[in-house]
Every structure is written in C-alpha cells, then in structure tokens.
Amino acid sequence: MPHFEDTSYRPPFWLRNGHLNTFYTYLFRNPASIQYERIRYETPDNDFFDTDWLKAGASDSLCILLHGLEGSSSSQYMLGTSGMLAENGFHVATLNFRSCSGVMNRTPLMYHSGFTADLHQVVGNAEKYYKNIYICGFSLGANVTFKYAGDGFYPLSPAIKGIAGVSVPCDLKAGSFQLQKRENKVYESRFLKTLAHKINEKIRQFPHLTIPKDPSKIKTIREFDDKYTAPIHGFAGCDDYYDRCGCKQYLHRISIPAIMINAWDDSFLPIESYPINEAANNKNLHLVTTKYGGHVGFTTFGSDYNWYESAILRFFKSGEVL
C-alpha cells in the first residue's frame, strides 16, 4: 500500500522533540496496573519462556505482544497496550523473551531481533483456542514480528489476521551504527548495563562458553552483538546476524494485513528503517509515519492510551489505517 503520512498525532510543542517524547513516556507514563496470569512454556530445546496473559471475559480474538530490547511484560508500553486491547474485547498474551521475565532461562540462548521460535510456539498453541490471532511488536519485538510474518521459515497459521509494529528497526545493520551516534549514547549505555549483567550470569551458568569474560568492556551494541549475540546464537558475527535477521528484506513477502508505525523524529531509526518502497509494492503492508513521536513514545494527554495504541486497535478491529 502507499506510504501514509499521518498528521493526526500532534503533541504539545514541548514534546515535538523525539528525545523528549521518548523520555517522557518512559519516565512518567504510569498505566493502570494489570494482574497478569503467568503461563510458562517449555521449549523443544529443554528451555522455557514465560508469557503473561490478560483475559477479560470470553473472546475468540487474541493479541500477542512482543516487547523491545531489555523490556518485559511490565514495560509501560506493554501494560498500556494490554489494557487497551482487553477493554476492547481481546485476550492478550505478552511474550517475555528468554531471560526477560525476571527468571534466567536454562540454556545459553537468550533472544535477539530475529528469534521467532518462541513466538511460533505461542501461536501454535493459541490457534487451538482462538479464531483470530493478532501480533504486535515494539522496537526489537516489532522486527521479530515482521520477520516472522515474512521470512517463510515457519508456516503462518490461518488464524493470524494481522500484525502491527511500532518503532520498527527494519535495517539492523544501519540501526547499529545509528545507536553509536552521540545523541543515542544514553540509551545505548542503559541497554549495555542490563545486557552485561545477563552475560555475567550466563558465564556463571556456563563457564566454558567461548565468549569474552568481561562484558563491562563492551562500549556499543554493535560490539555486544559481535562478541555475544552472534556467537551465542550461531551467527558468524554481528554483520551475519544483522544481514539474516533484519525484517526489511522480508517485507515484500508479507501476505497478511500489516501496519508499521515509525516516527520521523525517532533517534533510534536511520533512514533505512522507513521502508517506503517496500510498502508501495506490497498491498498488505501499510507504512504510517508521523512527524513526531520519538521511539515508542507518542505521548498523549487527555487519554488513558497513547496515540499508537488507538491506531493499532483501529487497524485490528476494522483494517482502517487513518
């Protein structure tokens, strides 16, 4: 479908800056607390991952939510979107990637931008109980979502009726260089701090892993992916990982309704992560860009939900983009 420039999101003047919008939502948004029901999935490789469910009444429609890098089901955007969907007739399953649920997983594997096996396991179980399944990802989780829908590695369930992604880093290699820019150092440092903690725990679990033993020396996400993400998950290096897992190359194959929402002032996203040509050549892919919004920001006053959440609900309920 054609690329849509959406002008309906107009934050107050002081939030017309991507960094401010990103930080304000991250620091000050306080969604209503949610009492999830946790379900643990045992995996074929003798590992596990945790999902947190929200079921308000009977429903034949499920939305699976995937968080971003070092997020979880308790991230503010997951809580907000879960509450909004539940209020509108959906059951919700929030997938915590391995190592992100508060309990370290059993194997050396953790998660990465192209790790779709656990999502496929949730879909395979859910299709037995739900007529309609939707998937929505944020940042890293959005790349996982679009890769899953387009790479053809797993057959898609006919129950999947649509997908959505917010702040989608379509081109992982370009995105790794984008994060190295001075304006993004504060974000990169926060990610590296929690990732280093997890790697230290993995080294304690598996002292014979052939990875560097001091993750505190790592200065960039690109270096982290080269030294840890890639070897742990079977890639030759960070570029091999980025080349194989970036979802942009698979967008032309998406055959179900899909909406991608990326703000132009998102400091995480290089120009390569705005797939205008891919959207123009795939009738199923709707690329929506906004002038403002930051990275999974889109702060909205006077509403319980942020702008992108209303856009996702509208798309899943009626297929409407604008």
Q: Keyphrases for this structure?
A:
322 residues, alpha/beta, Rossmann fold, 9-stranded mixed β-sheet, 34% helix, 16% strand, globular
Question: Secondary-structure map with pairings?
Answer:
Elements lengths: L3 E3 L11 H11 L8 E6 L5 E7 L6 E6 L9 H12 L3 E5 L21 H10 L5 E7 L1 H11 L9 E7 L5 H7 L6 H21 L15 H12 L5 H8 L12 E6 L12 H5 L4 E6 L16 H12 L4
Parallel strand pairs: 1-9, 4-5, 4-6, 6-7, 7-8, 8-9
Antiparallel strand pairs: 2-3, 3-5
Helix pairs in contact: 7-8
Q: Can you describe what's shown?
A:
- The chain has 322 residues and is α/β, with parallel strands linked by helices.
- The protein has 2 domains: 239 residues, Rossmann fold (3-Layer(aba) Sandwich), CATH 3.40.50.1820; 73 residues, no CATH class.
- It contains 10 helices and 9 strands.
- Strands 1-9-8-7-6-4-5-3-2 form a 9-stranded mixed sheet, with helices on both faces.
- Helix 7 crosses helix 8.
- The two termini are 13 Å apart.
- 48% of the residues are buried.
- The mean pLDDT is 97.
Number of domains: 2
Largest sheet: 9 strands, mixed
* Main β-sheet, spatial strand arrangement: 1-9-8-7-6-4-5-3-2
CATH class of the largest domain: Alpha Beta
CATH fold-level label of the largest domain: Rossmann fold
Number of strand segments:
9
Q: How much helicity do the residues have?
A: 25-40%
Helix and strand composition category = alpha/beta
The CATH architecture term of the largest domain is 3-Layer(aba) Sandwich
C-alpha-based Rg, rounded: 18 Å
